[in-house]
Amino acid sequence: MPDSISTIATKWGTAIQKLSDVLGREPAANRPRREVVLWCNLVAERNDELTAIANVAQDLGFTMPSNDEVQASVAKAAERLEALGEDVKKVPNRGRKNNERDEEVIVENAEDGANNTHDQSGDGDSRADFVSSAMVSGAEVFNAQGVAVGAWKKGEVHYYQPCMACTRKPRTTCRGALGAPCTPCRRTGLTTNCSFMSRGNESTPGPSSQTPNARKRSRETLAASASTSSVDDPTPEAEEVPEPVEQQPKKLRTGRHRKKSGTSAKEYQALQYADLISEDPVIAAESPPPTFREARSNSTMKKASTSTTTGSISGKDKEFVSNAVSVTPRKVTSTAEGTVKVADEVEAIWSQVETLQDEVGALRDELSIERERNSVQREQSAMLQKQVADLALELEWLRRTTTV
């Protein structure tokens, strides 16, 4: 059963949107040739889908509207493909998943294009002078430390050792434009992790992080440099080893002041820790057995008895004792009254909570009713829109039949 005209119109709108999205992601002029060809082929595929839908509508007696701007962009893409020297024929379709992957690659490259051009153009006049002086094939490229890191061949630098990102993968060579990320990193999108990014003078990875072939090549380079140095200077002088300088320990910020001594900070801290560990709980010495005094004389006892009997409380002591006696005890209230009050408050709160729960339930019922009403209105509006589209197509068909 053939599709209805409304279904064809929906497919037409979707195909127009897809073609417009692909045309909006046109690669820049400085992008690689493979990316440009991929984009042109994708535009051709979207245009063919659009043409097939238009042919189906034409068989049913309808003519789909066309957009002049979209057609002009498609013609421009075809001219660009012809300018690259490629055949106008499409690359055979490799499946839906591969086509989606091609679109993702075009989007990623379009987003990273501005960043790559900005990073590559950030070297200034020094990079241009260096490139102009090293255009001869085979010329060596040096980093900021004066170590040869690669050779200039066919307009790009072939590095002797791979960058840090490439050493994680089984790669023994690395190449790319001067001052830009290497070709493997640029293809995989790891532009920020490339060691040769921005200047091309980053230090290369050490032997511990290199592949076996790279380590062999580095050993051969070191052996060759050692042989040349031995020929130039047959009696090399022994290098002077500087005496180790004792570093002064930093002062610890302790709570108590200590005098300067010959011990270091670490030793002092260790001693303090040892003292803390060795400290035992201080046990109070046993008190000596009580010693009783000799009996006092009768005269002394008599004096003390007379003084205690004849003495009386006076002054501040008398006032304190009188106040202490006159203080009345505090009145202790029972907890029964407080319990009753708390129970009343809890009951009132529960009544308020029940009232609020009833109100929330009523609001939920109203919300469900309103949702059902909105869903019915949406279905009615969608049906009306579909009827309007069908009437517009029928009106267009009637106009064309009357003119004929």
TrEMBL record:
Could you tell me the superkingdom of the organism this chain comes from?
A: Eukaryota
Query: What ranges does the record list as Polar residues composition bias?
Result: 196-213
User: Acidic residues: which segments have biased composition?
Assistant: 101-111, 234-243
Compositionally biased residues, Basic residues:
250-261
Compositional bias annotation for Low complexity: 297-314
Residue segments, region Disordered: 91-129, 196-267, 286-315
Descriptive protein name: Uncharacterized protein
Source organism per UniProt: Botryobasidium botryosum (strain FD-172 SS1)
